[in-house]
Structures are given as structure tokens and as C-alpha cells.
Amino acid sequence: MDFKSSDTITGPSQEEALPHTATAAVKIVIVGGFGVGKTTMVGSVSEIRPLTTEETMTQAGIGVDDNYGSESKTATTVAMDFGRISLSDELVLYLFGTPGQERFWFLWNGLFEGALGAVVLIDTRRLEVSFDVIGRLEERGVPFVVAVNDFPDAPHHSMDTLRRALDLDEVVPMVKCDARQRASSRDTLLTLMRYLHSLTVARV
């Protein structure tokens, strides 16, 4: 497409412009298995219109993608989700949601570049899909918190039971979360930031 000198190029709307008071930006990655609510979380908490790369699921994914427990899901992330939230006048988080299917995990290398921490979303109906995700974070040395997403038909377990099932270190924070709710998603991100701060203080 050819642009003429008379064409107007517009930037972000006033509502989506980065606050002029912002002095620090942190990259956070939202990870988890297929259908655990990563796109939902980014969309619910983002103060800007989120970027998504969702595509309609087709017959080609049958037998390749494990959608057990989320059979009603009709679209899936094939690259990433992106959003932004200001936790204060100075601190801004850039959120990157990863694709859940294992065949897209090769994209993680780029998405994790420069990330300070991660939120692992889990679905208690399909706890086993979280094992490899957590293992990959531990291998990379990326600090993370675990958020138990509240699905209406999901079985309820105590945090201690889930921690043992996931073989999580006692220092890793676990919280309950409803990824559909902005306040709940924001609280999860605040838990991660407090955890990252505690790790920084411990190193001093």
C-alpha cells in the first residue's frame, strides 16, 4: 500500500497511550496448558485492547491437540496474546500469553526473552497438562506463581493437596483466580510482583 503525504497516520488512542509518569516496565509471561484461560486473563486485565492471535480450531487438530475438559473451545492461540496493565503511576506490566498446545511451544523461546517472571494458570480438571509447563519454567530458572483458575465445573482441592500434586516448592506462591475477573487477575499479578521483589531482597 502506498502512502501519500496527505495520509494521516494515527497512533494509539488517548486511553491506550502509555502514562507519561511510567518509569519502569516489566515483561510478564502468562503460561499454562491448552484451554486454561490465558487469553481470558490477558483480555480481562489489560487496560488496552489486547492483541490476540486466536484461530478457529479445525478438524486438523483432532488427535493432535488434547482438548479434554474444554471440548466447547472453538478457537486457540497460535502465536501469543499481548496486553498491558499499569500497577501504579510508575510501574507498567507488559503481558505475553503463550500458546498452550505443545506443538507451538517452540515459540516460547522468543516470548520468554527478557521476561522477569511468569504466571502459571492451572485447571484442576486437567492438572496433568501443567506438569511439563512448570518443568520448563524450572529448567529456565524463571520465577513463577501458580494461579488456580476457577472453572464452574472444576473439582475443588485444598492448596496443600494441589501443591503436593504439582510437586511445588513451598516458596512458590499459589493463589485462587478467576481469569474472567479483572480484579482477580490483577491480584494474581500483584502476587507475582511481590514474589519477585522478595527474591530480589533475598539476594541482597
Please give a structural write-up:
This protein is of the alpha/beta class. It has five helices and eight strands; from the N terminus they run βαββββαβαβαβα. Strands 4-5-1-6-7-8 form a six-stranded mixed sheet, with helices on both faces. Helix 1 (38-45) crosses helix 5. The model is unreliable at 5-11 and 60-65 (pLDDT under 50).
Summarize the structure.
Pfam families: ATP_bind_1. With 204 residues, the protein is an alpha/beta fold.
Features:
six-stranded mixed beta sheet, alpha/beta, 204 residues, two-stranded antiparallel sheet
Q: Mean pLDDT, nearest integer?
A: 81
- The rounded Rg comes to 18 Å
Low-confidence stretches: 5-11, 60-65
Overall shape: it is: globular
Helical segment count: 5
Total number of β-strand segments? 8
Structural category is alpha/beta
- For the biggest β-sheet, the strand order reads 4-5-1-6-7-8
Order of helices and strands: EHEEEEHEHEHEH
Q: What fraction of residues sit in β-strands? A: 15-25%
Largest sheet: 6 strands, mixed
Keywords: GTP-binding, Hydrolase, Nucleotide-binding
Protein name: GTP-binding protein
InterPro entries: Gliding_Motility_GTPase, Gpn, P-loop_NTPase
Family: Belongs to the GPN-loop GTPase family.
